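Reopening this ticket.

The earlier resolution said the output was attached, but the attachment link was broken on my side. Pasting everything inline this time so it's all in one place.
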Amino acid sequence: MGVPVFAGEVSLAEVVARHALESPGQTALLFEGERLSYGDLARRIVAATRLLAQDWHVRSGDRVAWLGASHPGELVLLFALARLGAVLVPLNYRLAPGEWDRLLADCKPVCVVHDITWAEAAKALAQRNSLASHCVDELMAAPPASDAPTDGKADSPVLLVSTSGTTGGPKLAVHTQANLLANMAIAAASQELSPHDRVLTVLPLFHVGGLCIQTLPALYAGAEVVLHAKFDPGETLGAIAGLRPTLTLQVPATMKALVEHPRWASTDLSSLRAVWAGSSLIPTALVEAFHARGVPLCNVYGATETGPFSIALGPTHARTHVGSCGWPAQGVEAKLGEGGEVLLRAPNIVARYWPDVPALDADGWFATGDLAVQAADGSYTIVGRAKELIISGGENIHPAEIELVLAQHPAVAECAAFGVPDERWGEAVAVAIVAKVPCTEGALRLHLEGQLARFKIPRKWYFVDALPKTALGKVQRAALARRFA
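Inline output:
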């Protein structure tokens, strides 16, 4: 299965340069009222490349960390590093300083670039790790340059992204320029992106979801990106009404915040030809809330290592396949391995973790750790994580199937099912509930009866103030199991 190709770029920096030649006046980025055309963006990338090489002494193969909210300068930095053949290491600003230190000790960047908001934390981080620190404003104000190094190649590493560490310590996935280009082509084709689109980006660029599902693919297609520093439901609804984007990417937590916002019902959503969700599992009530407003809620499945554009449910099937992730995107191969684990093979999937730990098997397949079922029409539905499977009395129980039904109860804000040791059954199904309003175990049991087999109904119920989560928002069921074992 071939990868869709719009142009013949072999390095990331060529993407913006192509649009700067073909449509220099087309808006590339809109951020806090400032517009950058593709011509402007290309010039800033060349100027930043020269600054990085001459003043900051960044060389091919070097790593440069970023600490800050989403900012056009982070994208300029990425493309400039791509020209140099150097590597961007975006840091999750939600992590603790000690976690940043461990990541930097692993990949040893030569400097840290930061925005104004995170200046103090970045300078302290740089001092602790004996690194230089630079403000992004300096990068964006680099003097014009007529030329700059172009040492980046297709196989040059360009992005190191931390995995969530759900089942162990985080690892750094090594994305090459070829990986990102393939993902941009795959994602752009799947979402039918064109220069006529305006994409609203509100998810953080430190993660491949915010960066690679729509933002980079939109720039690849010559579309306009409206970039927000951080997600705010009121500002997002205001941007949809005022700027009239055609696409945006959300996750269940932001979808919930939008649907529950006072202006949700009155906001004009008619400009949106689709909303895409970057999540393997989306509560049905949230999907239906968007469909009720006439907006197809599409879904993309993948992982930090897989681009992440792997399996996609587009607008055509959004209403008929609620709960499904859809079909493999063009250029992506998928199959179910032992126990129903999703295996993927594609040119946008990383080959290794930093520094040189293989991520693929001998035949090039990536084991996702996610379990799925495949329907007769070929579509995939994720049912849980391989290491989170609950085996009770010989029955295999996926936490997700319990959680999706429980989440439909009006008193449930969040929930997580997990297994705890049990002398009789081996494991017993337990569930932790974060309630919106006071509710009882009996009421929730009654809600599940008739919708789930009896052996799937939790035997142990715990009402908690919050669920333990990774820095990227994934529920840590193992932590719950340890707490309530």
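Reporter confirms the inline version is readable. Residues 241 and 268 are 5 Å apart (CA to CA). Residues 13-382 form a domain with the Rossmann fold fold (CATH 3.40.50.12780).
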